[in-house]
Specification:
Layout lengths: L6 H17 L9 E6 L2 E4 L15 E3 L5 E3 L7 H12 L7 E4 L3 H7 L13 H6 L14 H16 L6 E4 L3 E6 L2 H20 L5
Length: 205
């Protein structure tokens, strides 16, 4: 079991992961956000911030009730992140990071997706590293209904014995979570790569 990051470490990791995602095209402009759950609250990227150019000292810090304590104004998606933490931690207390991106291939795949999940189990690493990715209904960005639906999906899959680490918001992008920013980023990478493979072979899979 990995020890939770200190606040200083978490700030540095959010910026490192954000820069890596931006430089490799997983996020663009000011799309996407990253949060980390601390023992005394949450860190989250500021609203309208570019993930490639984050300043550790300017990340928003919020208390356990979601009220801002310091830093630049936090992304409004903290409401969704808090719902994910509440639902996911019931089944995995080590859940510490949520990443949301507008990853190109995941979003493209969601435009015509109609099933309960974004992807079938087409590669062994997708099965091992990601698993099931339920597809939520479309909601406008920041919708409280979207946050409630994502939490419900997490709880429903866990009750079925298949805990999940990602939910897809159609036309917006995936939300993934894990025990650290590094692990959440790896989950996102595997998810986006699998979506890319799916789009490359639409008639044979």
């Amino acid at each position: 079991m990995n020890l939770p990051l200190t606040e200083t470490q978490a700030r540095e990791e959010i910026c490192r992961v954000g820069r890596s995602l931006f430089e490799r095209g997983y996020v663009h402009a000011t799309a996407g956000n990253i949060s980390v759950r601390l023992d005394d609250g949450f860190l989250i990227t500021p609203t309208d911030a570019c993930l490639g150019f984050l300043d550790p000292a300017r990340l928003a810090k919020l208390d356990l009730q979601g009220q801002q304590i310091s830093g630049d104004k936090g992304s409004k998606t903290i409401a969704l992140h808090r719902q994910i933490y509440a639902a996911a931690c019931t089944h995995d207390a080590e859940t510490r990071c949520v990443i949301h991106t507008h990853s190109t291939h995941c979003v493209a795949l969601s435009l015509n997706a109609h099933g309960p999940e974004l992807l079938p189990p087409i590669t062994p690493y997708f099965v091992m590293k990601v698993g099931h990715v339920p597809l939520a209904r479309y909601h406008r960005p920041g919708s409280a209904a979207a946050a409630q639906e994502v939490a419900h999906l997490i709880e429903r899959y866990a009750a079925q014995g298949t805990p999940i680490r990602a939910v897809m918001l159609p036309r917006l992008g995936p939300n993934v979570w894990h025990d650290s920013p590094q692990a959440a980023m790896a989950t996102l990478e595997e998810l986006e790569e699998t979506a890319r493979l799916m789009l490359l072979q639409p008639h044979t899979l």
